[in-house]
Amino acid sequence: MEPLVDSWGREIRSLRVSVTDKCNFRCRYCMPAEGLEWLGREEILSFEEIQRLVGLLAAMGVDEVRLTGGEPLVRRDLPVLVEMLAGIEGVRDLSLTTNGVLLDRLAGALVAAGLRRLNVSLDSLSHVRFAEITRRDALDRVLAGLAEAERYPELRPIKVNCVAVRGFTEEEVPALAELARRKPYVVRFIEFMPLDADKAWREDDVLTGGEIRALIEERWPLVEVPAKASSTARRFRFADGAGEIGFVNPVSEPFCSSCDRIRLTADGKLRTCLFSRREWDLKEPLRAGASDADIEALLRNAVAHKELKHRINEPGFVRASRSMSQIGG
Ligand code: SAM
How confident is the model at residue 229 (pLDDT cuts 50, 70, 90)? Predict the structure, then answer.
């Protein structure tokens, strides 16, 4: 099949699939304490529906698939889906983004099913501050999940993602940088984006990657490592050799011009940008018996409308139509 190219000439190679909108954490920058109104069971795509869409996209050149949510590990039988997707020709890179709290139980089954890459979100290594940000006392379980993942050499790299919020994260930086030095984890700081369900985000809350880098370099000089053109992260190694740190700077250094990503929400909507105001329904046509050619045409049409850029930094920026956990971060 012809590759999937948007109207700005960007070739789509990467797909994020949200398998559920539910989450067992309540991170302050993402979801309110009481949670959100969850999707009904019938609204969520089945594993077979996800497999069909991924198969079609893989035939159009999408070779990177990341499972996310909500919290993907709360979706029952997730390893079954991993196995179904790992078997699709063309899916070269299958990964998972998780808060890690169920990972100690599931890592073995996920690896056996074909998972090869893992991102674990972790914002603090202090029990008190971890509970403050996630509203859950679960740091030990997340660390146990990471330790379990580490036992499988097939699962590399293991990335630890930390959302950087001004007034909170500065204090976490030394311990997280040390984690990158002491463990085989690539620690990455991600700028806080206006995707919180509470709509409390303010530009001033963004602690930029540049600022964090300066904090780290007060103690440990860093050396930049070349990254892939489509990479969201700038990569650095410690000058003394031990460990890797990354910065994902969507606010201070947008990387939209090389964006090769699309997203499938748990309820079967295609989104061409995290900040999209418009979504393209695939569930209804899938369930109405659309042919592969029909679905392919829908996918190509949606991608043709992919936004040029997110416009967070422009006057009159309008927030996305859904929040991070409902989209699939
Ligand atoms: N539950 C999984 C997890 O914790 O990784 C997957 C879904 S979660 C929505 C994906 C990532 O989005 C997490 O690393 C989370 O910290 C991040 N995130 C959530 N809200 C965010 C925001 N407003 N700005 C930046 N990152 C955010």
Answer: confident
